[in-house]
Amino acid sequence: MAKQTQKTNAERFIMAYNQIDYALRSIYGFKRSLSYADLIRKAVPLNSVVRKYEDELIDYGRLRNSIVHKTNPNYVIAEPHIEVVEDFEKIAKIICTPPLALNRVCKREVLTCDSDISLKTLLGLMSSTGYKNIPVYEDGQLKGVAIGLNVLEVLGDRSLSGENLEDFVETNTVTRVMSRLEDSKYFKVYDKNLTIESALNNFYLNRKLQLIIITENGHLNEKPLGVVTVADILDMNAIIENY
User: Fold this and answer.
1) What sign for the dihedral angle of Cα 196, 198, 203, 204?
2) How many Cβ atoms from other residues are within 10 Å of residue 95's Cβ?
3) pLDDT per position in the chain (243 positions), as tens?
């Protein structure tokens, strides 16, 4: 059996460069004619990891051009420092094989409620459990999410209008205040392959987003496997940092 030779720093660096280049073009359908630098810039609004490491990725792209021969990309004319190589490999790993949200940050015990419960019961659930955003189901089908901030807004409006809040919460169901699927900016549903990078990007692009519900295949008639909330953003950033 032939003995494997250990890769040089330059070979490892170029491999990380090629992995990132290939992954971003494949994921987002960027043209082959697009330069690496333009590729990174175009991926910034689409990918939270690229956005986080934009400056390093651009600098490492310039370094790659400095360590290979202009007319022969396989001919190395310089060796990068090992710390640079390891940092670039780390970024490549996060971009190419990001960790799954379900495995790392998801709250697995998902509190849900039926669509026919009263607002009084809903308020009791929120108060006793600390959960402020509760998915609402009807006959096993997701109908919407009771968003705590929206519930408070509705109750506040009713109070200002002089309505009796005790009667209101007893005679109305959760459907009166829930955010519905067709017009909601407050929640999304994804399948079990949702990555931490994608979850972070969803929260970045939509500042009103409160939670992401994860099911087996992302279908509305499936039991939730877990949820990711705004409160998980710091933990997700820490996972990316230490991945």
Assistant:
1) positive
2) 21
3) 445 578 899 989 999 999 999 999 999 999 999 999 999 999 999 999 999 999 999 999 999 988 886 656 666 678 899 999 999 999 999 999 999 999 999 877 899 999 999 999 999 999 999 999 999 999 999 999 999 999 999 999 999 999 999 999 999 999 999 999 887 899 999 999 999 999 999 999 999 999 999 999 999 999 999 999 999 999 999 999 888
Largest CA distance in the chain: 85
Closest by CA to 47, choosing from 62, 61, 28, 60, is 28
- The residues facing 68 across adjacent strands are 76
Taking phi over 0 as left and psi of -120 to 50 as alpha, with beta for the rest, 138 belongs to beta
Residue type, 161: S
